[in-house]
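Board notes (copied after class):
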Amino acid sequence: MGVRGDKYVTVRLASFLPAYTHSMTSEADLLIPLRRYWGYSSFRPLQERVVRSLLAGHDTCVVMPTGGGKSLCYQLPAVVSERTTVVISPLIALMQDQAAQLAQMGIPAAVLNSSVSSGEQSRVMRQARDGAFRLLYLSPERLQRADTLAWLQQVPISCFAIDEAHCISEWGHEFRPEYRQLSSLRGKFTDRPIAAFTASATRHVRHDILAQLQLRNPDKYIASFHRPNLRYLVRECDSVEHTELLVTALRHYGEGNVIVYSPTINKVEETVDFLETRESPLWAITPRWTALTADAIRNAGCPTKCAYW
């Protein structure tokens, strides 16, 4: 419905092929980079409309389910522009993973967060001022620093993409106080569009996102959350029965990939420890995970079971 992992990754600009500009108007024009870099012959629902909103310089708010292709919505405009898209994300591992994938695709990208050494940070900042990157990933904590805002004003920025935007809302289930500081972007970068992306936002949270980020007459998109390949079974049970059901489900899907969601980091780690005693090992994916863990999962030669926080 439309309502209108490496710590530092970069590639030489010489290998960055297209010379597209914001004047692209036809669907065929956008399909060229879509095929070249992502290997897709068509867009998923709403993706093209979101891409065009960003290329037109509009503030945008997007609610799209996990797996719906949110990252492409801001990565493709970055590819076809001649400036840098700054992506704000609270997940260090996700930033590193996306930057590594972009580098493999031949798209210049870099990461700045607490996991990056001071020497690498200096190099990223210097190259970013020269426009060396199409995508630059920052943590919200990094953006709180006055020196970061001053440096960004020297970077040729096309737009800001706020990932996990529901974290800005006190009404959301994952409120993060540091996200409130993102409201300063509007005052510091008055002529740059801001795009908010989330897979999880009630009506109240959506309104809070628009207000906190001070989005100006934004284009708003809400994608369908219907998945024809999924079925849902909800069952109330106590802790003992819950554990038994989890073990039964994992055994039933022994040949495929399984994702187990838990409400807290400690619960994720408890679940992993418990299932290892039942010879059903899981990878624990939480804010504590490292690039080494990500590489191990990516290179696993067997069906993967992951417990997510």
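Comment from the instructor: The two ends are 29 Å apart (CA to CA). The CA atoms of residues 80 and 215 lie 23 Å apart.
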